[in-house]
Amino acid sequence: MTDILIIILSTAGALFSLLAAIGIIRMPDTYLRISVNTKAATLGVGLMLGSAAIFFQDFAVTTRVQAIIIFILLTAPVGAHLIGRTSYFTGNKLWKGSVVDDLKGKYNIKSHELQSKNVDDERKKRHIERTDQ
Amino acid sequence: MSTQVYLQYVIIPILILSELMVFVRFLKGPSVIDRVVALDLIVTIGIGIISIYSMITDTSNFLDIAMILALIAFLGTVAFSYYLEKRNKND
After folding, report:
1. Which of A61, A75, A90 sits opposite B88 (nearest CB)?
2. Contact between residue A43 and residue B45 where contact means Cβ atoms under 8 Å apart
3. CB-neighbour burial class of residue B78 (10 A; exposed 0-12, middle 13-18, buried 19+)
4. What number of CA atoms fall less than 13 Å from residue B20's CA on the CB side?
5. Chain B interface, mutation test: which of A9, A34, A45, A58, most B Cβ atoms within 10 Å?
6. Contact between chains at B17 and A18 (C-beta distance less than 8 A)
């Protein structure tokens, strides 16, 4: 029974890792590659670690596996956000098929601060007020 | 067919194939960001290989190394993104 569970979990994990690898080769854009890296690889590695926990059936091993899974689940989104933010600032272009760029004009290019209003619109408004006076 | 034989002859080749495909992206990558992402994915799949290998050899001590690798991968990504952004700011 445990053998079947181990085989199912490890096969699913290996297939998700393979999907992540295919995605990182085939995706047209840096941002889509980051998305593949965070989602598919995290799930695949989590499933393989879970199969290791079932294989050993030991309290120490299960604790270690839980620590690794929680650590990966916590750090993968943070790292992906940081690297995506850096990629946006270093001027990586979006794929020509992407529809929405929500961040366009909302980041201060010099200080890298996020604003809820459009930066260019505010600058124009200030310019108009100044010319009125 | 025992579980360990299945792991050794089916799962490990799939994982090594995926590592090779990620390595192609690591060599090709148009920008530095792509290479950092590929490096992160190489280490993440490496954690999976370590967990499968610990089942094949029946040695649970390898999982400690997997934990340290996860830590190093995160630190590497954070450091790379921090310094790449700094370099862009100073230009």
Report:
1. A90
2. no
3. middle
4. 6
5. A45
6. yes
Q: Which residue has the higher pLDDT, B29 or A75?
A: A75
In three-state secondary structure terms, B60 is coil
Q: How many domains does chain B have?
A: 1
Domains in chain A: boundaries? 2-94, 103-133
| B77 in Cβ contact with B36 (< 8 Å) | yes
Q: How confident is the model over A22-48, as pLDDT tens digits? A: 999 998 888 888 988 888 889 999 999
Which residue in A44, A79, A92 is closest to B40 by CB distance?
A: A79
Q: Which domain holds residue B35?
A: 3-90
Residue A114 φ/ψ, nearest 5 degrees: -85, 140
CB contact under 8 A, A21 and B18: yes
In this prediction, residue A87 has a pLDDT band, given cuts at 50, 70 and 90, of confident
Contact residues on chain A for B32, CB-CB shorter than 8 A: 90
Look at A90 and B67 and tell me if their CB atoms are within 8 Å: no
Q: Which of B21, B81, B89 sits opposite A25 (nearest CB)?
A: B21
Please tell me the distance in Å from B41's CA to the nearest CA on chain A.
Answer: 6
Q: Is residue B59 exposed (0-12), middle (13-18) or buried (19+ Cβ within 10 Å)?
A: exposed
- Which of chain A's residues have a Cβ under 8 Å away from the Cβ of B48? 13-14, 17, 44-45, 48-49
Q: Which residues contact B77 (CB under 8 A, 6 or more apart)?
A: A79, A82, A83, B36, B40
